[in-house]
From TrEMBL:
This is ArsR family transcriptional regulator. It holds the Pfam family HTH_20. InterPro entries: ArsR-like_HTH, WH-like_DNA-bd_sf, WH_DNA-bd_sf. Signal peptide: none annotated. It comes from the Bacteria. The lineage of its organism: Bacteria, Bacillati, Actinomycetota, Actinomycetes, Micromonosporales. It comes from Asanoa ferruginea.
Amino acid sequence: MIEVGVIEEAGAAEVALDPIRARLLGLLAEPHSATSLAAVVGLPRQKVNYHLKTLETHGLVELVEERRKGNVTERVMRATAASFVISPIALSAVRPNPDRAPDRLSARWLLALAARLVQETGQLITGAARAGKPVATFALDGTVRFASAADRAAFTQELTAAVAALVGRYHDEQAPGGRDHRVIVAIHPKISETKES
């Protein structure tokens, strides 16, 4: 099972967002049969089986094994990923586009950038999986505590200058076989655990 799966089709997103199916997906981090799931969620086995077939049709769960119990063949299923991200590409024409956002200092522009990051990374993962190749990526994730707004402003100025210098040093428009890579650096106030809950 992979850690994070990408949902790129609107139909699969609709299926995953259904509350019952979302709960089943969470339970299917461990292999289950329709019978064992029915006992946990309190639904008839036939109803659970219907939801499992729908999830399987959209590639969200997979068959682990088939077990013979009397005259019945029990299918044991599990989720294809431990967690899922719905790519903005599933929203088709209404997906966020940072090129349309007029205010590049706004949080909404940052949100549109993040949405494009999810979309493009998802497409890279999907393409690499089909080709059986890894995707070369890099990311930093950390926290900085500014003493004042002035310090935050100074930090962003120095960070912008440092990134611009690095890009200027390594960017080669004429490199044969070179490949463009997107660079995104973002800073936003951190949400505390109590605010998230």
